Amino acid sequence: MRFTPASPAPPVPRAGTGQLADRSLVPPCQAACPLYQDIREYVDLVAQGRILEALRVIRSGNPFPSICAYVCSHPCEDQCRRAQVDNAVAIRALKRFAVEFGGDRLVQTEAETIHSERVAIVGSGPAGMACAYYLRKLGYPVTIFEAHPEVGGMLRGGVPQYRLPRAVLDAEVERLTRMGVEIRTNTRVVSLDLLFQLGYRAIFVTVGAQQSRRLGVPGEDLPGVVDAITFLREVNLGLKPSLGDRVVVIGGGNVAMDAARTALRLGSREVHVVCLEKREEMPGSAEDVEAAVEEGVALNCGWGPGAISGDSHVTGVQCIRCVSVFDADGRFSPTYDESTTTHLSCDTLITAIGQVPQVPEDFRLRTGRGSTIQVDPVTLATNRPGVFAGGDAVSGPATAVRALAQGRLAAHRIDDYLQHRYPKPRDPGPRLEGDLEPRTVEVIRRTGRMEPPVLAPEARRKGFEPVEAVYDWEAAVSEARRCLRCGMGAEILFQDKCAACLTCLRVCPYHVPRLDEAGNVRIPPEQCQACGVCVGECPARAIALRKPHDRRQVDEELEHALNAAAEAKVRPLILGFCCQYGLFGTHSLAGVWRRARAGVWIVPVLCAAKVEAEHLLKAFELGGEAVFVAGCGEQCARENTDLWLRQRVERVRKTLAQVGVEPGRLQAFVLAGGAENLAVELDRFVERVGGLYLAEVMRREAGR
Amino acid sequence: MIIAEQKPLDEMARMLAPYSRVLIVGCGTCMTVCGAGGEREVSYLHHALRVARARAGGEPRIFLEHTLKRQCDLEFLDLLKDRVAEVDAVLSLGCGVGVQAIAEHFPDLPVLPGVNTSFVGMADEWGVWDERCAACGDCRLADTGGICPITRCTKGMLNGPCAGTKNGKCEASPEMDCGWVLIYRRLETLNQLEKMRRYYPPRNFRTIPRPRRITSRAGGPGETDGPQPA
Q: Are B88 and B110 in contact (CB under 8 A)?
């Protein structure tokens, strides 16, 4: 019963295949990322086990992903809509997994010099490094001037090693030099005019904000009182300042946490953090504060520093009860209750109440509030022609990822300036707005966030080992599958075809499609979970997924598989549509496929529910002797997918029976009870249909 | 809405046997809604017929597919003009009206029905359709609490229930509600039970001349008084 493969069908205009525009909406994570990384895309690729492709996406949007993988403040996670179901997706940890998995791969250090205009960058912090990176990519000769002996700015001097191992930073700096960026350390720039005289056509000033603010209380200049930046710098450069047993850190931000946790690691027994804010108002990130507490840092929230006591050396600090930190307008304006005080004795006092930039007078740059350089927000141009500025020197103390973004922006604006172009504002396209509705949330499967493993607090205190470990493969893939794929759901792409049959309303597992007042069917994008069930059921084929890749993927993959099969000329031809998500597409279950014998061709699909009945028929039509669909069943991140898979398979089996094809040649497999069972079942299926085929050939030959 | 179901594939294959070039035409209105002949079904049928062909061997057959917004208006059928020029026959997935409309519009072209047009009805749930109206031309729903005795009663009785009702179910099938019990309950809710006491004389089906025609414009077709569309 062998099929004569039909000649290929004439191309039929099909929903979506003609128009391949990406109609997906910008998800909140991407909108929140200063670098505008395509987070949804790389998380989805991790979920499919395509880690190197994920890494390619990461590298294309981030000059130094390994740095972000460690220290990013992940504003994306704060906006993640998964938090409305359970907890945000661990995006930064997933990035770290991809970056460490890929290592040096996909690093492109080739950069051709195509322009003659030289650019000088003052400061080698993240903003300067990013600017240098992109200017090199754009083909400019770039020189970084760094006053200190080491490169990296705050990443080197400010961020403790347990948060960013120096090997990671060194590797990125090394890549930068391989790209041809000239880095001059120990070179303090005192005058921008001099740089122009030296022939630089544009300058990017990114001197950071490294000057600690002063407390303004008596005793601040006593020995034993040190500012956090100086302290962290000493430690990070390998010195081991002796702090004594008791340390008090003034301030509640991330730098204060870094200082306190560093003090613990240097052997201080008792470390107190004193901050004006209440615990929940603390400016430091919740993670950092929590980690500090775990390690044994004592928080004294709602206290302000009074006089620092001591004669020849600091002995303690008086603290005054802080009643409120902000005034009615939300401005910083602390008020104190002078009658409530307490005294903390200490051997060292570290101040960490913020930093300000220190821009040399001779730069003749206009500065504004908090000594920051004033720039045009669109072009980053300063008051001096050809001089651009960015990073903490412009924004005040901010995050590494913001600095990277400003560096990138500066590179492009400097390019515009040097090429006499008007800067083109980026059009990111429409964003996904709105929260999930309770009735949608109710249906979404709860799978709690899986944090990467961390060192035990006692072990952390012993040294500067990185606190956080990296995911293993399974954990990363499972975590990535939690992504809701915001903004890439289904839409009624061909409104004129919609017959308002309400099939989508009836089949959606999440009750998303609805009728508007005028009686038209609407699929609110902020509720759609992109499972694709309605796309495969719409009788008018008016619905399509917003990503072009999703629209054509099954057809294309089927074609690939058939081409490969045609080349191999192996019979029987068995086609298997297999879910690519999660552990299914990757090593845990790959054994299933690896064991598949010659003659079994896999058509990878992004969820078995996206395989339509027509695809199954097409597989038979184009010469498949047997076809199976394998869905990830119990592992699936979406609802009801196996139900739809079985429904479609049943239908096609009936059709096959009508045309005289043994329905057993088509089978659905759904993962339940572990991969082993599935592998056995699949083996049995291949054996059986293979055997059928052989028996048939022999019968035919005998009849001849 | 008109409900239909696709004919069995082997029946269609037999009908199509004499033709080597066939245009499959779907309908974007009722047949799309009831899932018997929308764009997806056209495509599915196309693939299924190709599988059948591959299975049977022999001359390859060429299928074209196209779905119209509606088959039951001649203006839409004009859109098929170029396509039908290339084929030997049309397989229509429209209802019986659509098939006849195509036949009327293209007198030289064989037109084959791909669906069995079944009834006027509505969806019970996804993929399940129930008959609701017999299009009898003599609506009595005002007297029966909005429940049609012609379609909901297996026997189509105008004066029910009959003696075959048991526990609210029909003697024809214990799964099926007795239409007249439904009517009774509904009238009870509406405080209109007196309507149950009325006698409805049998309808004389012979007085309904076929084909029926309804004229909604002033002046019948061919008459000159009353406004005429340009």
A: yes
